[in-house]
Amino acid sequence: MPNKGINLAPWEKSFDRILLPLEEFIHRQTTSGVLLMLCAVIALGIGNSAWQPAYELFLHTELNISLGSHLLSLSLHHWINEALMVLFFLVMGLELKREILVGELSSPRQALLPIVAAIGGMVIPAMLYYVFNPKGPAANGWGIPMATDIAFAIGALSLLGDRIPKNLLTFLIALAIVDDLGAVAVIAVFYTQSINTYALLAAVVCTGVLVGMNLGGIRHALPYALMGILLWAAMLASGVHATIAGIIIAFTIPIRPKFDPDRFLRQVHKLAGKMQDAIADQPDIIHNTRFRGLVSSLGDGVLLVQAPAQRFEHLLHLPVAYLVIPVFALANAGIPIDFSEFGKYLSHPISLGIICGLVLGKLVGIAGFTWLALKLKWADIPAGLTMKHITGVALLGGIGFTMSIFVADLGFASRPEDLLMAKTGILLASLIAGLSGFVWLALQPRPDS
């Protein structure tokens, strides 16, 4: 009999048939990048339509949270950029921690090549931007072309499927993670306007408590979430960009599970025997308190055999990839463009600096520093890769959408015209870099040919 031992609700089979294709679609690597691109296009369309005033009014709606006499008032746009994006930085921090401890960045020899490539991909774009904007308020945008959008870049690379070596995706992920860490450091050090010493001290205390929770063996999410909220509030009040709290929280979440697999399997066998005895004594599980207690113990063991950091990363990946980043795109990509003055946009020093930085600077920085590291024998190129593959990744590295817009909002917060030029440059550069990188890699021979 099909589904023996499984109790199905009346409509459950129908729902499963509907949801299965959707679930498969959601878990595809390419979906996040495609969704991000779709939201950016929608926002751009709204920003250049009759709905643009309503769009701006909606984003500037004030949302308040009061606690006694304390009032936290931020616009919807700020809630997205200052609060919702903490989850993005948290996942980014968890990915970085995993790569450093047990992944591609755990071996110094293995990590050196993507690290050198990422450094080149940050330094050269910033220098090129500075050539066009050496002084004045426009110089504040030098950090904009330094960042690579990991979701867009990996999405574009994944679309190529088996036309590229598997190692190339790993190299891009490692490079993009180091690149994101560099962007976070730039935000924390160079895009902090003023410091509230007392709030910063409170943030340090919160960080100390998080570290103590790690050392004390706390592995449940709730304590980290509650202390993380306090840390975020302290960072927001301190003047240091609040999203940095996400990175700090990530680095304090334990990476090691409590139980090793052998101990867990022994526990499972022991509990399974007890469950059989409990069912033999009382087949009705609704009234079988002993059986329910054993199941609860097994559930606790399932959690304790998993690394908390990896479990949290897995739980947050979907909401961040399919909610946080698309919402960020909808809130930040809706820039009004006067196409009759498009030439003016392209010739503006800020736009030119960003386009040259992202398209040319990333190419020269990533590919050039990689070639130099190989020539100096600091590192070895991963098996199956050539400099042509690295060149393709260097082109895709010029997709700077999410982090670049984020830095632009910080650098030009009080200069709307400069911000418009910056976002125009980011969108155009990301389009050029994405298309050129995709076409370049698509023209390369298949790995098995």
Labels describing this entry:
449 residues, mainly alpha, Na+/H+ antiporter like fold, 2 domains, two-stranded antiparallel sheet, 18 helices
- Just give the CATH class of the largest domain: Mainly Alpha
The stretches of 5 or more residues where confidence is low (pLDDT under 50) are: none
> How far is the first residue's CA from the last residue's CA?
48 Å
Q: What order do the SSEs take from the amino end to the carboxyl end, as H and E?
A: HHHEEHHHHHHHHHHHHHHH
CATH domain fold name of the largest domain: Na+/H+ antiporter like fold
Overall geometric form: globular
Amount of helix: over 70%
Average pLDDT, rounded to a whole number, is 82
Rg value: 25 Å
Largest sheet: 2 strands, antiparallel
CATH superfamily of the largest domain: Na+/H+ antiporter like domain
* Spatial strand arrangement across the major sheet: 1-2
| Named CATH architecture of the largest domain | Up-down Bundle
- How much of the sequence lies in strands comes to under 5%
Per DSSP, the total helix count is 18
What do you see in this structure?
The protein has 449 residues and is an all-alpha fold. The chain folds into 2 domains: 32-191 and 241-256 and 307-326 and 337-442, Na+/H+ antiporter like fold (Up-down Bundle); 261-304. 71% of the residues lie in helices and 3% in strands. The chain is built from 18 helices and 2 strands. It has helices at residues 12-26, 29-47, 52-59, 76-102, 108-132, 150-158, 166-190, 197-215, 221-238, 244-252, 261-281, 289-304, 308-332, 342-347, 349-375, 387-396, 401-411, 416-442, and strands at 62-67, 70-75. A two-stranded antiparallel sheet has the order 1-2. Strand 1 and strand 2 (70-75) form a beta hairpin. Helix 2 (29-47) runs parallel beside helix 13 (308-332) and helix 15 crosses helix 18. The protein starts with 11 loop residues before the first helix and ends in a 7-residue tail after the last helix. The model has no long low-confidence stretch (mean pLDDT 82).
